[in-house]
Structures are given as C-alpha cells and as structure tokens.
Amino acid sequence: MEANVIKADDLSFCYEESSEGISDISFTIDEGEIVLLTGNSGSGKSTLLKCLNGLIPSVTEGEMKGLLSIEGENYSDLKMHQLNQLIGSVFQNPRSQFFTDNTTAELVFPMENYGFSPEDMRARLESLKNTFGLDDLLDRDIFSLSSGERQLIALASAVTMKQKVLLFDEPSANLDYGNAMKLGRILKKLRDKGYTVIVADHRFYYLSGVIDKVLFMDDGKLVICNSEDEFKQGSYNTRSFDIFSINIPFSENASQEKTVARLENVCYKDILKGVNLSLNKGEITVLVGNNGAGKTTIAKTLCKSIKPDSGKVDIDGLPFFIMQDPDYQLFGTSVENELELVKKDPKAIDEILEYLGLSKYKYKHPFDLSGGQKQRLQIGMGMLCDRELIVFDEPTSGLDVYSMLNVSKEIKKLKEKAGILVISHDYEFIRHVANRIVYLNDGVIEKDFILDESTLSELNNIFMQMQEEE
Amino acid sequence: MKAVKINPIVLIIINIIAPSMYIFMSGKYLQIYLLVFASALFILMGRFKRLAGFWVVYALMMGLYYLTMQSKGTEFLGLFIIVIVQSVPCIALATILVTKYNSAQLLSALETMHIPRVLVVAVTITLKYIPTFRREFSYITESMRLRGIGFTWKQPVKSFQYFIVPQLFRCAALAEEVTAAGLVKGIDAPMRRTSYYEEKVTFIDALVLIVFAAGLAGGFVWKQML
To answer: Mind telling me which residue stretches traverse the membrane in this protein (chain B) (predicted)?
Structure first.
C-alpha cells in the first residue's frame, strides 16, 4: 500500500498583519507523486508552500490551525532542522537561495550543519556528482553559472540530506524554455526513483504529461484535481499545457518606416559577433535565444551601458529600459510620484493609472504593489516617457496567466508611440505581442523574420532547437 | 613566489586585536607598524593589485592630512582624517576576509573559535551581504542613469533618498530570503557543526601571529623607552 507522505487536515493560516491567508485545506500526497500547486497571484499558493517547508510558522508569523503531517509525524512536533532532513526546498530566487557563493561549499553546507564527518561529506558529494552530472560544476562561483546550471546546483543541494520530498517554488520563472523542459525531464526521473515532488508554479507546460495531482488554490480555498486531465477540463485557464497548439491571433503589425535604433556589425568580447539589427517605430520585436546567447548584452549596448569593441550603435538618447526585477528601478515615494519622476503631467498620469487599473493605488508606495502591478506601473512609466525605444527584459517572469495577458495588451498599446524590443522566453506571451522575431544564437543573429501565419512554424522550430541545445 | 594561504582565523584574530590596540599604545608607532605588517601579508598572499590600491588610498589620505594640518582653521579636519587613516590597514585586511574566503569557510573558522552559533550566523550573513550589496547597488545606479534620475548636489537629500529607499527594501527582502535559505539547510541544527574545509593551523599561520604579537610588544617597549 502506498503511504501518505504528506497529509493536511483542515489546515488554515492567517497572517498577523493582513486578512489574507488560507483556510480549510485538506489533501493527501502519496509517495512518488508529482504534484502541481498552482493558482493566481494572491490565491494562497505561496502561503501553502511556506506551511509545507516550515517557514510558516518559524519565520512568518500568524495564526495556524489544523493538522499537517509528513511521513506520519506531525509538523508541530518537528523542529525546523528535523523537518529539513525530510523535505528539501528549491527557491525561486537565484540571488538569495544560496547561502554561499561557491558550488561545492553550497553542496556541503547542509552536511556541515548536521555535523557530517569530512569523509562522509566527500562520499556524499561524489554520489551527488554522479546522480546530477555535476562534474564540471564543482568548486565554481555560483554567480558565474547559467540559470540551468544554477537550478541543478539548487536541486542537488536540496537533497544532500537524502530528503525524499522536494518542494519547488516557481522554478520556471528564472529558466529559459530549454532549461524548463529539461527540469521537467529531471523531475520525471526523480519521481521514478521514488521522490515525491511538489511544484508551485504559474506556468506548467514543462510538466505536461507528468503530473499526478493538482492542488489548485482559488482565493485561499483548495480545489483538488486527481489527474492532469481532470485539471485540464476544469474552468481554469490551462491552455498553456501544450503551448504550441494554442491558437492566438497574430499581433497587428503597425511597423512604420521610421528607424528608432540601429546596430551595425556590433562585436563585444566573445559575446556578440557582428550583430546587425534595426528597430522600427510601431513594431514589437522579440529577441529570443537561450541564456548566454547575448540577449541582455544587446540590450546593454542599446542602453549605452557597455561600449562595443567594434561596430556602430545608432540611437537618439537612451531607450527606456524595463528590467526583469522591478524592485531595482522603482524610486518614487508613491505610485503617483513614481510617474511624476518620468514626467510631471498630472492629467496624463491620471489617464494612465485609470487605464492600467492602478488608480486606487495612486498614493500607495510602489513596493506595496504585487508583482503584476509593479510590472504594469513600469509599463505606465513607459507610456509616459518620450523615449523612442522601449526595452523589456523578461517582463512576464513570475506572472500568472491573467497578469501576463494584461501585460501583453498594454505592451501592444505602447507600440503606438515607440519602437519596442522585448527579451523573452515565454512562448505564449511572445505569440501575443510579437510582430517580428529575432533569434540570437551564440552571439549571431540566426533568424530575423516577421511573425505571421506563414512563419509560425519557424518560431516553433526555434523553440524546439533551443530545447535540444540545452 | 607562491602565494601563501593563511587561515581565516588568523586574519580574524588580527582584525579584532589590531584596532583595539590603539587604545593602549602609541598611535604613530601602531599606524606605521600596521601599514608594514598589512603590506607584508598582502605580498605573502600574492595580492599585489589590492596592495597597490591600498597604498594609493593611504598615500592620498596622508597627503590630505598634511595639507589640512598646514593651517589652524582646517586642523580639526586633519585630526578627523588621521583617525580614518589609522583604520585603513585594518580595513584592507578585512577585505581579504570577505573576498578570499567563501561564507562556509568563514563560518567554520568562527565556529572553531567557539563563538556562539547565533553570533557566527549573524557575522557571516553580514560579511556576505557586502558583495551582494555592491552588486545590487550597481543595478540601482544603472537604472537611475537610464531613468535620468541622477545625483545632483542641488537636491542632495532627495538624490540620496532615491538610492537609499530601494536599497532598504532590498535589505529587508534579502534578509528574509537569506534566513529562509539558511533555515531550510539546517543552520539551526543543534549538533556540533563540522567543516568540509578543514583549516588546519599551519606553521605559516603561527609565524604570522608571532610576528604580529612581537610587533605589538615592540610597541610597548618603544613607549617605555620614550
């Protein structure tokens, strides 16, 4: 008989400082299952995840009721360090999920804490190296790794204590398409080895065909689907399971003659090898390519943050650059003030806030907004500015489907007044906004085409190719 | 010459003792002694670039000190500068700790000194926050440049606020994330912590400490002789 690895009975949690929380959560997870935990932003998904990894109640304070048990032991009877020998956590953020900055140090870190002897550590390290194929990754600076490699280290360090239950918090947010698909395959292998895997994510295309159970959070309440099919038949937008079959109308092409920026034969170190690109007003150009292909470097040359070794960058003034992480570029004391910093035009600001549905947050501090709202505020800044080129770096990473659709709609409106360059690996989002696809591979532009009915297969091929390369 | 590896404990001890010695002995002697001692350590460890940087900063500040000491009106500035100059060798030594050793090594070193775990964790997180801070700071200044929000002396408070506020929010978020990262990796485990990077105290380590102590003792003798 299969045993319940995790069991929740009437679990509820209420944050100390707000009315948000989860209530009446009951479910069981069996050994060797892959469980998807999903739901919109603010639905209680992360709250439930924090209950599972023990950060509630040990770090986040609030009122917890009900029962939660793992392998027959009650969570409330377990100390944090006991729980973490049973359950391994992989967080979303590469910046802070590592405690050290060296891969080997990171992998042995838990073992040091639990008092392993150096011989045991070496043996375990060797076995982790073989299981996860870490031969080239040991003793490296974590920040010099690619996102896929980092994910692998995070995963390996989560099972150093031979934990059999693994929790993932939005793994796809910081992975490109190829690496996300690779993660899906790794998870499947882990399941075959008897691991129980719980993945909390907005996107789940990389889990297609491997999900055993779906825990769907809807406004603090739980809906359970006992199979992937049952989940697909539900009312939630699950189209993104098979991203290539989605039928999305092509974004209207309003490209104008006016060129807003041009790169001529740009070379930079061994990252860019002779890039030619010209961007037009009214056109949304999406730059695709695997991590390390040089996408961000192109954006940086356009922003004049780096000077190319050779070649010409032709652009009037600076582009408006919207980074992946909005926290780095919000400086205002309120939402209204944030927009005023771009341009003092109260009438335009009110119109934009109204359009973006942010009017009621006008006097709130930008940091109090949710991820999707921050992203929209940044788009609002783009609408208000007088720059000719607006550059987005992964604008949909970490957004749920509905926020992604809103962001797409707003970016499409932006092109009326400027040229737009988007760096993205979010296929669904790309299909919504792109007029033109530029495929960058190893520092060279391999493909550059207008996206329509006739070239769709070409885009799909690029994604297939990216998957194989990783 | 091969760069010598020095046990982080030695550096930590020196960093604790050196600044506190200013209380007990002649500032002038200690200042020169620490300058020579730190320079020698840098050479031993093969950190020539950092040594050059350290000398430039030192020379500049000394120059400034002599300039301000020329007139009565600016003397108070000079006195202020000399206090900072005296801490330059110590700061230079501390930077080696942060850049050359990873946090696991620092943690192990501090553990062997029988410092309580709570303090060890706090110190390690703080030390590791410096490089993170530098990275984050560069993102923020870059994004200020792109948004056209520059630092202006016309509105120093306002300009300062632009980069301090996001930084503070990052701090709060980061502190929570780092704590979580440590907790799920068993940092609260009650058993005695072991170390993968066993830092044995070598002959060189002992020698460095002896030389350091001898230099300090020399300072006391010198003071007596005056």
So the answer is: 6-24, 29-46, 52-69, 76-101, 201-222
Band (A1; pLDDT cuts 50, 70, 90): very low
- ipTM value: 0.79
Provide the mean pLDDT of chain B: 82
Inform me whether the pLDDT recorded for B68 exceeds 60.
Answer: yes
Q: What pLDDT score does A348 carry?
A: 93
Q: What is the mean pLDDT of residues B95-120?
A: 78
B164 contacts chain A (CB < 8 A)? no
Say if residue A140's pLDDT is above 60: yes
- Which chain A residue has its CA at the smallest distance from B148's CA? A342
Contact A101 B180 (CB under 8 A): no
Q: Does B130 touch chain A (CB under 8 A)?
A: no
The verdict on a CB contact (< 8 Å) between B143 and A109 is no
Q: What average pLDDT does this structure show over A208-229?
A: 92
When pLDDT is cut at 50, 70 and 90, the band that residue A239 belongs to is low
Number of cross-chain residue pairs from A and B with Cβ atoms under 8 Å apart: 149
Q: What is the mean pLDDT of residues A421-443?
A: 93
B67 shares a domain with B19:
yes
| Closest residue by Cα to residue A296 from A172, A399, A392, A431 | A392
Residues B80 and B109 in one domain: no
Burial class for B48, CB neighbours closer than 10 Å (0-12, 13-18, 19+): exposed
The answer to whether residues B16 and B85 belong to one domain is: yes
The verdict on B89 and B117 lying in the same domain is: no
- The model's confidence at residue A2, banded by pLDDT at 50, 70 and 90, is low
B92 with B111, same domain? Answer: no
Least CB–CB distance from A84: residue in B105, B174, B184: B184
Residue-range domains of chain A with CATH: 4-245 (3.40.50.300), 259-469 (3.40.50.300)
Question: Is the overall model pTM greater than 0.90, yes or no?
Answer: no
Range of the domain at B142: 103-195
**Alpha carbon of residue B49 to chain centroid:** 17
Residue B84, chain A, CB below 8 Å: the answer is: no
Instruction: Tell me which chain A residues have a C-beta less than 8 angstroms from the C-beta of B166.
Output: 327-331
Alpha helices, H only, A134-260: 147-158, 177-192, 228-233
Q: Classify strands A87-90 and A73-74 as parallel, antiparallel or unpaired.
A: unpaired
Instruction: Tell me if A329 and B148 make a contact (CB, 8 A cut-off).
Output: no
Give chain A's mean pLDDT.
90
| pLDDT beyond 80 at A3 | no
Query: How many structural domains does chain B have?
Result: 2
The answer to whether residue B126 neighbours chain A at the CB level (below 8 Å) is no
Which of A99, A105, A161 lies closest to B181 in CB terms?
A99
Smallest Cβ–Cβ distance between B169 and the set A59, A342, A367 belongs to A367
Q: Are residues B9 and B51 in the same domain?
A: yes
Indicate if B137 and B27 belong to the same structural domain: no
Contact A105 B102 (CB under 8 A): yes
Residue of A nearest to B161 (CA): A331
Question: Is residue B121 located within the same domain as residue B175?
Answer: yes
